[in-house]
Amino acid sequence: MFFVILLNNSGFLERLKKTKLLLPPLSGFTDYAYRQILAEFSPPFICTEMISPHAIIHRNPKVLRSLEKIDGPHLSGVQLIGNEPKAMAEAAEIIESLGYDYVDINMGCTVKTVTNSGAGIALMKSEEIASEIAKNIVNSVNMPVTCKMRLGYNKANLNAVTLGKKLADIGITSITVHGRTGEKKLGLPIDYVKLREVIEKIPIPIIANGNIFNGFDAKNMIDATNAAAIMPGRGIIGNPWLVAEILSVFSNTPIHQPCLLEKKQVSLQHTLNLINFYNEKTAIIKMRKILPEYFKYCQNLISLKKDIQNVNNLIELQNLIDKIEKNGSKIKFKNINT
Ligand SMILES: Cc1cc2nc3c(=O)[nH]c(=O)nc-3n(C[C@H](O)[C@H](O)[C@H](O)COP(=O)(O)O)c2cc1C
């Protein structure tokens, strides 16, 4: 069994070292429909959004359907959110039996309902429970177990290093560290100096996360922190081309910029995947947030964001996409006022 652990870890770590790119868990965005899109872009790793272990243990049909493996050369991970060591380990065993390649423990979510239940970043406050969860999962599965945390519970408690060292001793394979503390809003800057310190002091590979929106942000993050790899966050929403862009910058090869037609085709396919997984109504509601991300460099994005709120079905969405046109080297949404 020890041999198997080493073998699995080495496959994960080799790929991490070679590609330096993991895709993030993003609740509400890296759902089954978008992971199908992402898989077409050949990223090295794809992770689910955070999932409750109880939904897996109780075989919630929708959750199990969302956990059907998506074909592709990528390694597939599931992120668990919870605070009960036994339930987390039981869910991890099921995840492994479904053919997944790694499991990630959420130790960074700051959503109130999550932290009030003792999960997410509350685990950074309670290093004992965090360690207990990590130990239980590592002892229950053969696949790599990873964690995702922040620099600290809050700016007065920068405990990523102390917790990270404990997790490394337990056998956690790698840790993603979001370069903000718990109370910091997403718009605020990343603390590269603190991230570098964490990376220097924890003896396992650290993946740096925060404010990576393009290939150069990714390279700057590695240069500034010496991280083993990076993980974009919001930057991947509506931009699966970011995978190739980051890998191109890392390998110093030309960047492919998607043309308008590609963006239209992929955003439409994304909508169809959402309809297939949920239903037309839910898909359209989700696309009201997602579609503007595909076209965020549109000159009159505000009009696009406004008009999409009135879209109620696939035909209307297609009509709206048709109104996005080239305008010289830029793109423009041709609404009724233009
Ligand atoms: C809409 C949204 C959903 C998120 N969901 C998760 C999640 O399920 N699990 C997780 O560990 N982090 C989650 N995060 C945090 C991101 O993975 C990432 O750590 C954070 O956005 C910082 O990276 P960025 O500044 O590049 O966006 C989420 C963030 C956003 C904006």
Describe this structure in words.
This protein has 338 residues and is α/β, with parallel strands linked by helices. It has two domains: 2-251, Alpha-Beta Barrel (TIM Barrel); 260-333, Non-ribosomal Peptide Synthetase Peptidyl Carrier Protein, Chain A. The protein is built from 16 helices and nine strands. The strands form two sheets. The chain has a seven-stranded parallel beta sheet, with helices on both faces. Helix 11 crosses helix 12 (242-251) and helix 14 packs antiparallel against helix 15 (301-308). It starts with a helix and ends in a 5-residue tail after the last strand. 43% of the residues are buried. The chain binds flavin mononucleotide (FMN). Residues 24-29, 49-50, 79, 106, 108-109, 148, 178, 186, 209-212, 232-235 line the site of flavin mononucleotide.
